[in-house]
Records
---
Amino acid sequence: MLFETIVIVIYSASLLMIFAYALSQLNLLFNYLSNKKLEITHDLLDTSNPDEVPFVTIQLPVYNEKYVMERLLNNMALMDYPKDRFEIQVLDDSTDESVDTTSDQIKALQKTGLDIQHVMRSDRSGFKAGALKEGLKEARGEFIAIFDADFLPKSDWLRATIPHFKKPNIGVVQTRWSHLNRDFSILTQVQAFALDAHFTLEQVGRNTKGHFINFNGTAGVWRKSCILDAGNWEGDTLTEDLDLSYRAQLKDWQFKYLEHVETPAELPVAISAARSQQFRWNKGGAENFRKMVRQVLQSQSISNKTKFHGVLHLLNSTMFLNVLIVAILSIPMLYIKNEYAHLKTYFIVMSFFIVSTLIFFSCYWVMYKNTYGGGVNNFARFTVMFFAFFSIAMGFSFHNSIAVIEGHIGKRSEFVRTPKFNLSSLKESWKSNVYLKKNISPNVIIEGILMLYFGFGLYSAFTVGDQGGDFGLFPFHLMLFLGFGFVFFKSLSSKL
């Protein structure tokens, strides 16, 4: 019974963690809905008054982005803001031929009167954080707007964001990402679905009640004095944006999230690109939990509720590890359930995963309905997309769990940026992208084995016990089988 006890304890602990996270999401949903009922007004800077137009530095941290640089710089040149009140820093750590083409384009833009500079370093120390920190030394702006290479803000973007810095304690204004290529494939649709939930439910739900949110690394503006007061950019985690966000808010700087201001960007279309992005985000989240959780819990200036949401926010990526544990142990639990009849009550009480799934389903439906409208047809489309998202997210759970474990134990790795594609020029020939990894990760083989493992779980539903089977976990195992199968075959086919 020792083995069974160990399995039950670990399984139950992971279920409870997932359930706690689901409850936090439900609370954020209530916050989101209550915020929608309020008409919130606050003082704004009057950018039509020359005396109230602050100087802004736009920072573009880039590294080997030959497919999107021309598009990025041409878009920035269209920014509708007084030309004498902003500058652009192209923080270029590139090591390929894009350096020369970028330099040529910058020189051409300079001749039009645009204040744009090509800033290069001799090494990539600190990666993106190091580039931003280096650029900050020469930045003349009171405010620092940051865009990754695949983001295309609208021309009025600065006029829509800068006015919200009227109050001197506002340190960051963050905007919502939208997606240039949402409908390219099921992979991009699932990524968009997940990001939409973050940029509605989570960011609004936290921000409206004064809980900590994060600058998302791009499509936002920092007050320069806030960056410096919080200790400047640090490159000791893979998510320098989350790190600086928490350090700033622990020093009582306020963040403002603008759901209504969209900033279009490109989603990764290749699964290898999505894998590298997921790995960086999830490892960085775990690294920041390791770095920041004690400061959050010991802070005397924030409420216990903000601490609760802050801890679960920092543990966000760790949910993948809990999902993987529950998934792997669910098959032994299926046999334990049918072997020990006296545990029946326990299994009824521990149906947290079903409850958690229903909570996630309800929260995401509200977000989807607010964006795309209600009705039977939209609900049907949402239901299909939700289960596709849930399945593929679980299919990524092993890959992301490796990232989480590395983050928690402090294993360092370099910042691997996500390859960009610019589909308007490459269309569906994305496999020719020179930045894509050519080798197959060993993790893919394990994901294939896990697909077979959960196929065994489906088979077990028909054979376990002496009552003609047990189908309680069949939907769960089906989603796991499909999710790991999708990730496995998609990863293999992308190399062919």
---
Amino acid sequence: MHNVFPKCEICGLIPYFGLYDGLRLGKKFICSQCEKQILQTKAQDPQYQVNVQNIKRIIYC
């Protein structure tokens, strides 16, 4: 049987509220915690480039 719960493409975890706890980007899923972290990261923060690379990987792969 297939797992019907989404798994976040960034952190690899299954969100507590399933599909209602995040967003879809193309055919991929991002949990609300990773979404929040992406939105709150400032451009000067080193994590910003990691976020950009993660989003590129999700969109182009």
---
Amino acid sequence: MSVAKITEISASSKKSFEDAMQKGIKKANETLDNIEGAWVQDLKVTCKDGKIDEYRAMMKVTFVLR
């Protein structure tokens, strides 16, 4: 039997949503072991001067406890 835990993270990128998600998972992997997956809960952008300035991804990351 395994037990999993979920933690919420927010990541951002100037490039794209995909880049924000990649950066978020990479950073989470530095402190969390056994990451199994992530649910992208929300996507949003910030704007400046009528253009997209930053892409943001809010994710729920699932990892297995040992």
